[in-house]
Design goal:
10% strand; globular
Length: 343
């Protein structure tokens, strides 16, 4: 009888300890989220770590510091702490990460529930967004980490992943040799024009960003900066691809927006690709128009799309559309580049 009583007491004690720990974690999460939401509207400032202006990792560090939890300074470092959490098991207070202008974690935010996260956006300052936003954040979702449990214990290290098998330049684990795009991707990779990710994947269906297109064109056309004319609010010498961005701006291939931003992490639409390729490859005028059903002469990129089609660089989609507002994928960019350079 004594053993049964002791056993029951131990179970009861463990249950109480578990719920006490969970409640403490939830309370800390509420404080972090409350601090984060109180900063909504704060402007984005490169390198900012205070309520006068934040960058994404500075905002994260500030919100957690107010709850007595220390986070590393950069997004890449923050992605290496805590426990990995699947998207289906997210809790308020978890750290969520996105892959924007370069491979790996380059943007972060705080999950607040209902598929929403709060973050310091370069375009909107501290604001909320959906992790499933189909136009931008959804395709760029990288993963999540939990740091609000067992704070007294050492942060567990993630399980090491097996090293991916290395491959020669131009070959990728996710581009089969049977694929119709295999030869052109291999050619561009061997020429050093395109490259993949550190795990030897190319990720052909991912959308490509303005900074990435700038880097590819600078390499393809062997462009170098001439006078560093790109004076933009949202890039500096520490920005990935800074030299290539300056090179394509100096060459007249890229411009910024009306607010003086380059927007390096924004997806590059098919309309933008037509305009930039028209400038980069000095495409000849079209003898006759290609009657894509979703464009007309009032579209700003109309003439560039017509020249792109007349040059054989694009054929549009099988339903006779060009889809100018769609984000350009990494595969589409590779096809366009190959045709422009080699055909």
């Amino acid at each position: 009888m004594c053993k049964k009583i002791l056993s029951s007491f131990l179970v009861f004690t463990l249950v109480i300890a578990f719920f006490s720990s969970y409640q403490a974690s939830a309370s800390t999460a509420n404080k972090v989220i409350s601090v984060a939401k109180s900063q909504i509207g704060t402007p984005y400032v490169w390198g900012g770590t205070t309520p006068s202006g934040f960058d994404c990792s500075g905002f994260m560090r500030y919100a957690f510091n107010q709850a007595g939890i220390s986070l590393p300074r950069t997004t890449a470092e923050q992605y290496r702490v805590g426990q990995s959490v699947s998207k289906s098991n997210l809790r308020p207070g978890d750290l969520v990460f996105f892959e924007t202008y370069k491979p790996g974690a380059s943007h972060s935010g705080i999950y607040i529930g209902n598929n929403q996260f709060v973050h310091a956006s370069s375009s909107n300052g501290v604001s909320t967004s959906s992790i499933n936003d189909p136009y931008y954040w959804g395709p760029r979702y990288l993963g999540a980490k939990r740091v609000l449990e067992n704070q007294q214990a050492a942060t567990p290290k993630p399980e090491p992943k097996p090293e991916p098998k290395s491959l020669p330049a131009g070959q990728y684990h996710d581009v089969s040799s049977n694929s119709s795009s295999y030869a052109l991707i291999k050619t561009l990779g061997e020429a050093g024009v395109i490259n993949g990710y550190s795990d030897y994947t190319y990720r052909p269906d991912n959308s490509i960003t303005r900074a990435q297109v700038a880097q590819l064109l600078a390499r393809a056309l062997n462009l170098k900066p001439t006078n560093y004319s790109g004076k933009f609010n949202d890039i500096n010498k520490n920005t990935s691809g800074y030299e290539e961005i300056q090179a394509v701006v100096d060459a007249g291939l890229f411009k910024g927006d009306v607010d003086g931003n380059f927007r390096p992490g924004d997806p590059f639409t098919r309309a933008h690709i037509a305009v930039v390729f028209d400038r980069a490859f000095d495409l000849p005028d079209a003898v006759s128009a290609t009657n894509f059903s979703d464009i007309n002469s009032s579209l700003g990129a109309y003439d560039s799309i017509q020249r792109l089609a007349a040059s054989g660089i694009t054929t549009g989609h099988s339903d006779n559309t060009y889809r100018p507002n769609n984000a350009t994928t990494r595969l589409q960019l590779a096809i366009f580049l190959y045709r422009a350079l080699y055909e």
